[in-house]
Design a protein that fits this description.
The protein contains 6 helices and 2 strands. It is mainly alpha-helical. It has 2 domains: 38 residues; 101 residues. About 7% of the residues have low confidence. Bound molecules: heme C. The site of heme C has 19 residues, from helix 3 and helix 5.
């Protein structure tokens, strides 16, 4: 119920004094509500649900957020020319396949390498600071992406 109507529902015309009083009460009520909302918003950053996905979120922030927005709480990272994880999951039908093979997809081979692979040939240096990922790291990142897809309704929880 909107604040202004509070006085009216009590079945009497509010006097000037009491309407001032109830306006003040309304303001406090509104302030209280917005504080509750603010706290609710602040305390619900993208939270990964399993330890593996949690690790995937941390790794994504470390290694992917340089270019991609990787979670809702990091909306201001990344570069605007690079699609966010969320956009890719929402709008690419084959997002799962693409994430599953991101290491081989451009532009990543220019700077991401699998741990244990041969070092980059000297005549083909990484174009930016090189990132070396292990298979476990990749599994964690994909677990995080999967969870994001479940949250976005793009994947069944146990698919
Ligand atoms: C140096 C910047 C950069 C970093 C770091 C980076 N990406 Fe990307 N990524 C891009 C760009 C740019 C594209 C879009 C390429 C295109 O449109 O062809 C992309 C595309 C992708 C795609 C879609 C690929 C396709 O072919 O459709 C996936 C999946 C992806 N990135 C995952 C990741 C993951 C996971 C990480 C972290 C481990 C990561 N990226 C780190 C720049 C980056």
């Amino acid at each position: 119920m909107p604040c202004q109507e509070l006085g009216r529902t009590r079945g009497r015309q509010p006097s000037a004094a009491s309407s001032q009083h109830s306006t003040a009460r309304c303001n406090i009520l509104n302030l209280g509500l917005s504080m509750v909302l603010l706290i609710a918003v602040q305390s619900s950053p993208a939270k990964a649900q399993t330890p593996l996905a949690e690790r995937g979120l941390a790794l994504s922030k470390l290694h992917c957020a340089r270019c991609h927005i990787v979670s809702e709480s990091d909306r201001f990272t990344g570069t605007s020319s690079t699609p966010s994880f969320k956009i890719m999951i929402e709008f690419l039908k084959d997002w799962e396949e693409r994430f599953g093979s991101f290491m081989a997809r451009n532009p990543h081979p220019a700077h991401i390498r699998l741990d244990g692979d041969d070092p980059r040939p000297e005549h083909l240096p990484a174009t930016i600071r090189e990132v070396i990922l292990s298979l476990d790291d990749i599994e964690a990142i994909l677990a995080y992406v999967d969870q994001m897809a479940v949250d976005l309704g793009k994947k069944q929880p146990d698919d």
